[in-house]
Every structure is written in C-alpha cells, then in structure tokens.
Amino acid sequence: MLGVLGGMGPMATVDFLAKLVRATPAGRDQDHIPTLVCSAVDIPDRADAILGTGPDPLPAMRAALARLEAGGATRIAIPCNTAHHWHAALQAGTGLPILHIVDAVAETLARTGIETGGRVGLLATDGTLRAGLYRERLARREIACRAPGPEGQAAVAAAIRLVKAHRVAEARPLLEAQVRALSEAGCDRVVMACTEIPIALAGSDPSGLLVDATEALARACVAACRPDRGDAAAALPRAA
C-alpha cells in the first residue's frame, strides 16, 4: 500500500492523487494502487523552517509518517518538494522506503534527453532553493540549475502563496513570466519544483518546456508499486 504524507498543501495533495490515478495503467478499479493518505495540514511551513523564520516541521512529519506506517503503508510518497529537505531524517526513522521527488524528476529529465551538460530552470520555494535540494542532487548527473533573480523569485513565492489561498488565476501570469525568463536565459527545461505550481500552470506548456515534479513523483510511485507496469506509466501522455 502506498502511503501519501500529504497536506503540504492540501490542493497539491489532491493534484498528486489525480496524477497518480492517471499514471496508473488500469482497466478496472482493482488495477489501481491501494493508497492511504494522511493530509497532515498541521505540519509547520517547511520553507519558513529552512529560512529560520518558523518552527521545525520534522516532529509533525514523523508523527504523520507513523500514522501511515500503522495504517499498513509499505512505501511512502511526499508530494511536497521542500519537505524533502528532511528526507534523510525521515528515512532514518522508518523501515519503509520513501521515494525522493528530485530523483523522480531526474529520471523524467533523462527520459526527455536532459542529462550530462543539461541546464534546467527551477521554480521553487525560497526554502527549496536555500536547501539546495535540486542543485545538489542534479549535480550528481552533471545537470546545472538556474533559479530566477531576486525579483523573479519574489514573484514565484507570491504565486505559491496565491495558489495556497485558492487564487490560482492570479498566480498564473506571475509564473508564466518566470518560465519565459528562464527559457530566454537558455534553460533546456523548467522544473515546476513546488507542488502548488503545476496547479497554476496546468495547460500552459504547448512546447513541452515544463517538467512537473508532482507528475514525476506519481509516475515513480507507479514504477515502484507496480514494477510490471512502470514502463507503461512512463509512456502515458502527460496530464494537461
């Protein structure tokens, strides 16, 4: 059973679940992945914690993980990029494998031909950028990362807050401007490295420039939970 440590935020968790269903090759209900969701909305803000302006979310994340483990989960997915700053600490406290969202993105990049020498733009929280989650992990594959400048990053952070407040339409133009800027700066792909961002940019990528971390994680879950169908999941069309 897949355990989803969610609630960071709630809308992003719902988006992940929808993409998990779409990524699963299935002809009937019973072909889907049994899933247990803990929408732990009480977990303190992850970006604030990394920036030193908020409480440590690790105890609350560990408590949510324990609930999933007690409920029978056999592996864990966390549809929040910034929360992966605590991936190692969470993994050390459980025998269940916890999928890593950046590894899932790296596999997606490889499938689209972005490997050694590639350059990707990052649309992410200030916390994800400060923690270096993508830079460090993608550097192992010799993929360089570029983030927006200070003004652009402020716009990204504002857009993320707007999505969390259900003001998705207002967030979209802010993010589209940063996608254009990163593309013009020479990025081969732009990773939507915050699970709120694909909600705002749904349907706005006719050129295939964007990489959806939420969708990448969903496909990785299918490959892990249904190894006989992982290749089929990778071949499914991207969500609109």
Automatic annotation (TrEMBL):
**Pfam families named among the record's database cross-references:** Asp_Glu_race (PF01177)
| Keywords from the UniProt entry | Isomerase
Keyword Isomerase among UniProt keywords: yes
| Keyword Transmembrane carried by entry | no
Q: Which domain of life is it from?
A: Bacteria
InterPro entries to which the protein is assigned, alphabetical:
Asp/Glu/hydantoin_racemase (IPR015942), Asp/Glu_race (IPR001920), Asp_race (IPR004380)
A Gene Ontology MF term for this entry?
Answer: amino-acid racemase activity
Q: Which family does it belong to?
A: Belongs to the aspartate/glutamate racemases family.
The name on file for this protein is Aspartate racemase
Naturally occurring in which organism (per UniProt)? Methylobacterium tardum
